[in-house]
Amino acid sequence: MEDLKKSILEKIKPSDEEMAKLKLVADELMYKIDCLTFKVGLTGVQTQLVGSAARGTWISGTHDLDIFITFPDDTSREDLESYGLSVGRQVAKEAEHWDEHYAEHPYVKMRYKGFDVDLVPCYRVSSASSIISAVDRTPFHNEFIKANLNGLEDDVLLLKQFMKGTGVYGSELKTEGFSGYLTELLVINYGSFEKVLEAASDWRPGLLLDILEHGKLKFEDPLVVIDPTDPKRNVAAALSLDKFCTFVDVARSFLSSPDESMFFSSLIPPISDIEIVERLEKKGSSLLAIVFKTPDVVDDIFYPQFSKMENSVVPMLDKNEFTVLKAGKWSGEDSVVMLELMSGTLPNVKMHRGPPVWVRDHAEKFREKYVDNEDVYSFVIEDGFYVAEIPRKHISARELLEKELANCSLGKHISKSVKDGFEIIEGKQVLELNGDGFRSFLNGWL
């Protein structure tokens, strides 16, 4: 195991030269910000490098810098946003490219000397439990990790890379996996990379980890890790049940048979046309895809709506007796909801069960409606219930989606995109979809 870890660290641990360059660029940017805030007379404003770059837990090649511009907590929200953006724009004039992003409040993202840099204004508050905006707690995360990691940086690097390689790393709504901060807390809690995997092998949903023993709080997530800096928060709230269970599975697999490839295997190769056709023919199921233009909104707005769409479409199909074997979703320039059905078509008739004969009022109304109806194929009594064999409203899943998709619960932005135009493709027509990364997704999903 030690030789394996050493081999992986040689690939992922930043070199002295790489670390020196990061420090140089970070110091340069913070100096520029300090000069700008002094020049315009902003008092009490400080800059701070946060995140993995500040904690020595960043993987070689991931050149990300999170620089926080901290304002006194009595600063108005208007001034924080205005001055924070103004400073960010001034610094970004020397960037390769930059743009403004909007989360709880606006911030600047830029590419500067080979680094992806976020310049984020926030409030400098007394504790993480008294934050004014969500990002205000990040400096406290910084302090806690730096004070408690105690030489376990290499273990964090190994765990992060293992999670990346097995596809469970990243707390954004697109991924629903483990955040960097959560990864660091797991290493601190258990004591090493191997001990995290050993513990995870026996995890069950509902596990609670409370490093500072704040006392049990009520959360209903698969994994609950109480934030040491803010006990009202679950650091693992973004982690889905499937990603939780995937980590349990890969931890067991690795401990059973340690393999370096697990650290670097998350990139699934794209599936070829021939492979798609072979899988479809072998399965004998029906494949449908809903394709629409991806709305121009940030991921934190789009992905909840995307999940809402999937969770609305599947029950609609089930309600109309189209059995959904599985569903999945992918997004690029276009977004796609993939659906695998037992069958994409159904018989022209369906059995409509009415009330039991002895419930007279309801039974007579049902009988009156169907017994002499020319559209009804048969009217019988089965197990004491009236049963009418009636025409099915939708015999094609494709037709159902084309007619009813806009009536599903889609969310504001996806609803607009769908109304502007969408396409339902079926079976081998999926070969027409070639968005960058879609074929890799399909290879893992199909």
Multimeric organization: single chain
Report the end-to-end length measured between terminal Cα atoms.
Answer: 34 Å
Tell me the series of helices and strands, N- to C-terminal. HHEHEHEEEHHHHEEEHHEHEEEHEEHHEH
CA radius of gyration: 28 Å
Structural class: alpha+beta
Helix content: 40-55%
Order of strands, main sheet, comes to 1-2-5-4-3
Overall residue-averaged pLDDT value: 90
Q: Tell the overall outline.
A: elongated
Low-pLDDT stretches are none
Largest sheet: 5 strands, mixed
Beta-strand content: 15-25%
List the helices and strands and how they pair.
Elements: H1 2-12, H2 16-39, E1 46-50, H3 52-55, E2 64-72, H4 77-92, E3 97-102, E4 106-112, E5 115-124, H5 138-148, H6 153-165, H7 180-190, H8 193-200, E6 207-209, E7 223-227, E8 230-234, H9 241-256, H10 273-283, E9 286-293, H11 299-319, E10 324-331, E11 334-341, E12 349-356, H12 360-370, E13 378-382, E14 385-391, H13 397-404, H14 412-420, E15 422-426, H15 438-445
Describe it for me?
This protein has 446 residues and is an alpha+beta fold. Helices cover 41% and strands 22% of the residues. It contains 15 helices and 15 strands. The strands form 4 sheets. The protein has a 5-stranded mixed beta sheet, sandwiched between helices. The chain has a 4-stranded antiparallel beta sheet with strand order 10-11-9-15, with helices on both faces. The protein has a 3-stranded mixed beta sheet with strand order 6-7-8, with helices on one face. Strand 7 (223-227) and strand 8 form a beta hairpin. Helix 1 (2-12) crosses helix 6 (153-165), helix 6 packs across helix 7 (180-190) and helix 8 packs across helix 9. The longest helix has 24 residues, at 16-39. It is elongated and about 85 Å long. The two termini are 34 Å apart.
